[in-house]
Amino acid sequence: MSFSPVSYLVRHAQALLSSAGHLARAPIATVFTVAVMGLALALPLGLDVLVRNVRSATGDFSGAVGLSAYMHTGVSEQRAQELASTARARAGVGTVTLITADQALAQFRTQSGFGAALDALEGNPLPHVLAITPAAANANPADMESLRRYLSAWPEVESVQLDGAWVARFNAILNLLRRSLLIAAGLLGAGVVAIVGNTIRLEIQNRRAEIEVTKLVGGTNGFVRRPFLYTGALYGLLGGLAAWLVVEASLRALAPAATQLAQSYGSRFALAGPSLRDLELLLGVGTLLGWLGSWLAAARHLAKMEPGSG
Amino acid sequence: MITFQSVAKRYRNGREALSSVSLHVAPGEMVFLTGRSGAGKSTVLKLIALLERPTRGQVIVAGERTAKLPARRVPAFRRRVGVVFQDHRLLIDRPVFDNVALPLIVAGSSLKEMGKRVRAALDQVGLLGSERVLPSELSVGEQQRVGIARAIVSRPPILIADEPTGNLDPVLAAEVMTLFRRLNEVGVTVIVATHDLHLVQESGLRAIVIENGRIAGGEPETALPTIEARR
Q1: A62-163: which CATH topology?
Q2: Å from B77 to nearest chain A CA?
Q3: Nearest by CB to A218, which of B52, B90, B106?
C-alpha cells in the first residue's frame, strides 16, 4: 500500500496493457473510432501540407512585386538618372533600375521580332522607365500604394504601373487559407475530444459492474479512471497515426498528376509529404486530445458511479 | 469494532430505511443480523461498508466515524471491510484469479504477494486449482465461495455478508457458515445478514433483529455500556 516509484510504474503499465487489451478485444469498434478520429485529424494536416506545397511551388514571388514608372517622352536621360537617385533614397525602396528609352528599344527590337517595323519609325517612341522593387518588408499593398502615389506626383512621370498586384492577392488568399486551417483544426480537434469522450462514456457504462466492484473493494477514483485515460490516449495516438497514413496515401495518389503539371511549366517541383516533425506533432496532439476527451468523460461519469447506489 | 448510535438513514427517494438504530459489535465477535426483507438489514451493512452514510446519528467502524470521513479516505477505509453479496457480484468476464485478486490490485500489492494471497484465500474456500476458470463455469455455491475469497483475500479485520446463503441449498449454506466460523476463530469480526432463522438458531450466536428500521429486542440501547466494557 505504501508508495514506491516502481509499483507506481508497474500499476500504470498494467493499466496501459489492460486498455490496449480492451481495444484489441473489440477490433471493429476500435477501428471505426480510430478511423473517424483519423479523418478528423487528417483534414487540417492535409490542408496544411497543401498550403505549404502551393507556397513552395510558387516561391514567394517577392521578385515579381514592383512598380514601373513611365516618364513623359520629352524627359532627358540625365533627368531620369536624377529621378532614379531620388527614388533610391526613399525609405522602403529596394532597388531602382533605370531603363532608358534606347535600352528599351534595343531590347524590344531583339526580343519582339518587330525589328523591321521599328526601323520604319522616325524616332524612339518609348519613354524612360524606372523599374522599382520595394524592400522586402514593404512589399505589401498599402506601402506599394503609397509609393505609387509618391511617384505619380512627379511631373516627369506620366503613369505608374503596379506590377504583381495579383501576388499580393495571392498571398492574401494563402493567408486566408492558413487562417481557415487554424479554425478547422480547432473545430476538428474539439470534434476529436467529443468523439473520444462519447466512446469512453459508453465504455464506462458498459463496465459499470466492474467499476462498482472495484470501488467496493477500495479502488480509488484515480485507479478506476486510469485505464479509461489510457484508452482515450491510445485512441488519440492511433487516430493520429491513421491521419498520417491518410495524408501520405492521398499525396501518393496526387504526386504523379502534380509532377506532370509541374513539368508542363518546366518546373522540377515535386509534392512534399508531411515531415517527421508533423508526424510527431500529430501523434502528440492526437494523444493529448484523446486523453482530454476521456478525462472529461471520466470526470463526469465515474465519480457518480458508487457501489451503494447500484 | 462497530458501533451505531441512534442511526437513521433516509434514502434520496425519501424512503426511511432506518429510523433509530443503536447497536454494538465487539472486535472478534460474530453476529447475525436478521429481520424480514426490507426491514433495513442491507442498509445496516451498507452503512458499515461505507457504501452509504448515515442521515442522522453516528456510525463508528474500526475507530472511524464514517459520517465525516472525507471522500479521498473512503477507498482506504473500504479495504478494511470485506463484503460478501448474495449475488456475489463477480466480474463474469474475468477468471477466478483476477476476481479474487482485485482488492490486492487496487491496493497495489506486488505480483508475488498477490499470487500467494489469492491461492491462500482460494485454499480457504476449497477452490484451489480453479484460478483460471471463469465464474460462469462454476456452480452457484462455488461462485459464492469465490466471492468470499475476494472478501477475505486482503485479510480485512471486518467481514460483512448480505444473505450469503440465500441462493444455496442447506448443505452448501452450512459449508459457507462453517467457513465464516473459521474466519471468526482467527479474529475476524463477522456480521452476517440473513432471514434464515434456522441457521441463526443452529449457530447459537447472538442475533440482532431489525424490524421496521429499529432494533427489536436482543440489543436494547441500555446494553451498550456493558458491551463497550467487554472490549
Answers
A1: Alpha-Beta Plaits (3.30.70)
A2: 7
A3: B106
Question: Taking CB atoms and an 8 Å cutoff, what residues of chain B touch A13?
Answer: none
ipTM above 0.90, yes or no: no
Q: Domains of chain A: which residue ranges?
A: 5-60+169-309, 62-163
**What does the alpha-carbon distance between residue B210 and residue B37 come to, in Å, rounded to a whole number?**
10
Q: What is the pTM of this model?
A: 0.72
Domain with CATH 3.40.50.300 in chain B: 1-80+157-231
Question: Do A213 and B52 lie within an 8 Å CB cutoff?
Answer: no
Distance CA A45, CA B35 (A): 67
Q: B1-80+157-231 belongs to which homologous superfamily?
A: P-loop containing nucleotide triphosphate hydrolases (3.40.50.300)
pLDDT digits (tens, 9 = 90+) for A41-84: 998 888 888 888 887 777 656 556 788 889 888 888 888 888 88
Closest C-alpha among B111, B113, B117 to residue B82: B117
Please tell me what DSSP assigns to residue A158. Answer: E
pLDDT tens profile A207-226: 888 899 999 999 888 889 99
B-chain residue closest to A207, CA distance: B91
User: CB-based contact (8 Å) between A306 and chain B?
Assistant: yes
Chain A partners within 8 Å of B107 (Cβ): 1, 218
Residue B34, judged by CB atoms within 10 A of its CB (0-12, 13-18, 19+), counts as: buried
